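Consider the tokenized backbone below.
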């Protein structure tokens, strides 16, 4: 009863989400009609005789609204039609992976659905299915199974079979149809928001009023996801139950935990190993997935992978994620329905793989770009990676040696005038140690080390400042041994690379020699004797011919900026707004210039040609008709009366005598 009520509630939510999506389409259609009506009214106003000036304000507003309107329309078109195939995927044929195809078809038969028409490999640690069906996914269409190549290399056969059964379980429950509607609806809303944001970035006028549309669209997206999230999470639990019936609950639980751990490990491999090596040396592996598989299979990663699995179980579900929390899924799998009596136990599956050419092709897609780099065999790339991770401390050591030599007045010599500075040698480091400059050298080196390398072997640099200097000297000695071919670097995925010394020498012997020479005065001569016994010339510089020894750092911009697709979208928005602005301005100006002037009533004036024959007189006809010409007389006005003359009365002016007030002269 409870299950039926939950199913009914899920159906109601799905129908309400479809209705909400239909309302969104109706709102976009109303916006387009309103914009078109506004544009037509503006053009009609420009052509009326009463228009005195072109409607420049209306033209600017229409041009500013054009990117938003076209972006909303494009969002609707993207969600209404079937999704285009992914460009970052490689299609697998039956000949290229026969065991994989056979397993997928058998699992499809077990779950009671038709198999997918295409299997494509992707460069992500995930798997998914799509059904590019018409009518918003309501009708059956072409099915595609996307399988991440890191899963194919990192999961066991039983776990991989469980993942495939889970994805095919979505087909058997017809989840892909509603999932297509939910995904397309969410994608359309996100695309609409992106269109408004791009228009705001490209047009200052749009930025003034883009806040309210973004807020309303964000609320609409939140409501849509709130409606579809429980339905999609319920579908994930149903697919888990179907996969447990076919492949076993234990295999499904292990697959869920391993997939989460592989996803975290794959992201760490890209960020901490592949990308830094590509930036520093310009070298990339021809098959990065085989290099990742080598990392996952390394013994030192067993405990970290177990920790990743434990953290994945404890991590809560993301608010916008369609998958429930991993703990919830594992709890549901721990109480599966009882197995039918007489049912066969779950078979032990065979390993599944694809031909190496698919991994190479997918690696080219993953590592494409303007600065692709030099492709090398993945085993050689691992060797170069180990050497690079071990010898990257030599660049700060060379800078520290140079700084101390300049400070102490020991000189930074050059090979020739205008040439490159003298390269780093063991002799130069030992010379500073013999001169009592170990502490200035150690402080200079610690100041130039990256933050993650200032605490080697768990020791605090502040408590033991000589530890980084001893480690750098050991790396310098190891680099000389590797250069002469008597040692090599072994990759260590959880720390610095390990030096494998010549036969007869323990792995920690080189580090012990370097540590003794750095900490105890007078021990540099004994270190020189050990190096001479190994055939190492302490005055010989390192042959910086390989990529790991290149001291010139590649310029890498870390300033945040728009990506290539974002820049193309912004450029398209600017071009669209400019095109609409210029087109409307030109059309409005033409309509305004060619408008009819208004006519006002007045006295008719007979033209000179009017006295000739009507309808064909040209003024040169020798026999004109005697049409009287209009005469104009000077208008007469009534005489104004003569204004009266006014005179002021005459007044007598009194005389003034000033003699009494003039002082008299004294005799």
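A designed sequence for it:
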């Amino acid at each position: 009863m409870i299950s039926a009520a939950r199913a009914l509630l899920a159906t109601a939510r799905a129908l309400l989400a479809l209705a909400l999506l239909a309302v969104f389409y109706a709102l976009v259609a109303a916006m387009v009609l309103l914009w078109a009506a506004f544009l037509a009214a503006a053009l009609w106003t420009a052509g009326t005789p009463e228009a005195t000036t072109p409607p420049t304000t209306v033209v600017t507003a229409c041009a500013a609204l054009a990117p938003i309107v076209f972006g909303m329309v494009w969002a609707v078109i993207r969600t209404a039609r079937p999704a285009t195939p992914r460009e970052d995927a490689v299609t697998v044929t039956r000949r290229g992976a026969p065991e994989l195809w056979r397993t997928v078809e058998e699992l499809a038969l077990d779950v009671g659905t038709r198999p997918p028409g295409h299997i494509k490999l992707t460069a992500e640690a995930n798997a998914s299915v799509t059904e590019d069906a018409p009518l918003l996914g309501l009708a059956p269409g072409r099915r595609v199974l996307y399988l991440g190549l890191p899963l194919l290399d990192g999961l066991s056969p039983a776990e991989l079979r469980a993942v495939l059964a889970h994805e095919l379980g979505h087909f058997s429950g017809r989840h892909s149809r509603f999932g297509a509607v939910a995904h397309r609806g969410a994608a359309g809303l996100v695309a609409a928001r992106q269109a408004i944001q791009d228009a705001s970035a490209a047009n200052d006028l749009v930025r003034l009023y883009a806040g309210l549309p973004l807020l309303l669209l964000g609320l609409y997206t939140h409501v849509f996801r709130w409606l579809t999230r429980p339905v999609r999470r319920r579908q994930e639990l149903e697919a888990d139950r179907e996969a447990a019936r076919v492949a076993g609950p234990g295999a499904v639980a292990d697959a869920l935990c391993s997939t989460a751990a592989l996803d975290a490990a794959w992201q760490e491999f890209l960020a901490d190993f592949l990308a830094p090596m590509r930036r520093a040396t310009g070298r990339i592996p021809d098959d990065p997935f085989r290099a990742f598989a080598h990392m996952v299979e390394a013994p030192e990663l067993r405990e970290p992978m177990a920790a990743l699995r434990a953290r994945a179980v404890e991590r809560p579900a993301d608010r916008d994620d369609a998958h429930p929390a991993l703990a919830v899924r594992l709890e549901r799998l721990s109480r599966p329905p009882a197995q039918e009596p007489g049912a066969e136990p779950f078979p032990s599956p065979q390993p599944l793989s694809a031909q190496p050419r698919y991994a190479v092709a997918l690696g080219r897609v993953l590592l494409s770009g303007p600065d692709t780099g030099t492709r090398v065999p993945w085993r050689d790339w691992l060797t170069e990676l180990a050497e690079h991770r071990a010898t990257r401390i030599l660049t700060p050591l060379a800078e520290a040696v140079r700084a101390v030599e300049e400070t102490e007045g020991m000189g930074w010599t050059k090979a020739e005038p205008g040439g490159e500075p003298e390269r780093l040698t063991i002799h130069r480091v030992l010379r500073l140690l013999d001169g009592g400059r170990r502490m200035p050298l150690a402080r200079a080196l610690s100041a130039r080390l990256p933050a993650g390398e200032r605490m080697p072997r768990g020791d605090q640099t502040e408590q033991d400042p000589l530890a980084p200097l001893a480690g750098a000297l050991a790396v310098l000695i190891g680099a000389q041994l590797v250069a002469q071919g008597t040692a090599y670097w072994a990759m260590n995925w959880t720390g610095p690379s390990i030096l494998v010394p010549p036969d007869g020498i323990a792995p920690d012997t080189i580090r012990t020699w370097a540590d003794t020479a750095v900490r105890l005065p007078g021990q540099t001569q004994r270190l020189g004797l050990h190096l001479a016994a190994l055939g190492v010339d302490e005055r010989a510089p390192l042959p910086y011919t390989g990529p790991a020894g290149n001291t010139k750092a590649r310029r890498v911009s870390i300033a945040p900026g728009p990506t290539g697709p974002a820049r193309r979208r912004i450029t398209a928005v600017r071009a669209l707004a400019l095109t609409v602005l210029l087109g409307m301005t030109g059309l409005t100006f033409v309509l305004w210039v060619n408008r009819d002037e208004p006519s006002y009533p007045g006295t008719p004036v007979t033209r000179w040609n009017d006295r000739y024959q009507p309808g064909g007189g040209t003024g040169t006809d020798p026999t004109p008709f005697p049409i009287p010409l209009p005469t104009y007389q000077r208008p007469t006005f009534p005489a104004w009366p003569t204004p009266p003359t006014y005179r002021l009365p005459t007044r007598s002016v009194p005389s003034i005598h000033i003699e009494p007030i003039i002082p008299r002269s004294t005799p």
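Confidence is low (pLDDT under 50) at residues 413-419, 455-461, 545-563.
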